[in-house]
Amino acid sequence: MGRGLKRFAALTGVAALGAVAFYRWQPQRYQFFERPVPDDDPPLDPAAEYLFSEYSSVVVVIAHPDDAEFYLGGTLARLKEYGARIALVVTTDGDKGYYPRVDAEKNRVVRRREQIESARMYGCDEVTFLGYPDGRLKGGPELVRQIRDAIASFGPEYVFSFDPLYPPKVQHADHLRTGEATAEAVKELPDVEWLVQFSTRAPNFAVDITDIWPEKRKLIAVHESQFTGRKLRFIEDMLRNRAAADGALANVPLAEAFRVVQREH
Ligand SMILES: [Zn+2]
Fold first, then answer.
1. Ligand 1 centroid – CA 265 distance (Å)
2. Is CATH 3.40.50.10420 correct for 48-255+257-261?
3. I need a labelling partner for 128 at 20 to 30 A (CA). Which of 48, 86, 144, 175 fits?
4. CA 14–ligand 1 middle distance (angstroms)
5. Rounded distance from Cα 252 to ligand 1 centre (Å)
């Protein structure tokens, strides 16, 4: 190999290592090998009439303050309308501490306050923060145990979390770890009848949020530290487009789609 070629090879190697290091540092994960969506995948009704009633109880397990409003704000507003009991478990502190130039301490305080405020708006007064570092959530038995205990103390029939099996092509690593750990935790909770998963490529159930869309917008806007001004409008447009796409599944203008899994006993 000539000197020029050697140099080129060395530089290419450094660039490749740099790209790998950057990919590992930033928290988004690309699904290189996507699990194909099942061919025969009929709709599944998670006893929706019971879910949307004053008798049901629901625990939502998320990774960051704002995930719940973002992925299922309309459904949460609907649950409030019917008087369901709702509790929230947030696995990370959402402080973005992995970025070199953020005030992580301030983020922790502000985002916690925003989450408590928005949760109150859908009648959820039990919010558990597990406090793992944002963007760096690792799975494992300790996380599973903490999620399991938080769910068990509320005693729900329904647990909502991220879909770990059919996530979108690009997904936040904290979302994947939270979804995986919740699916594991639920295995040890025989009273949980339904696992309802959001951020999924394989929805089999949708909640009509057409008339409650303004409520979802209000919930998103509470997270001021994340979304204000043009960014808020951008996020609202994005969520509206997503709701319209999910609505097509259910033949309604706007919906939130889920992958429902019934527990085997
Ligand atoms: Zn998130």
1. 31
2. no
3. 48
4. 32
5. 27
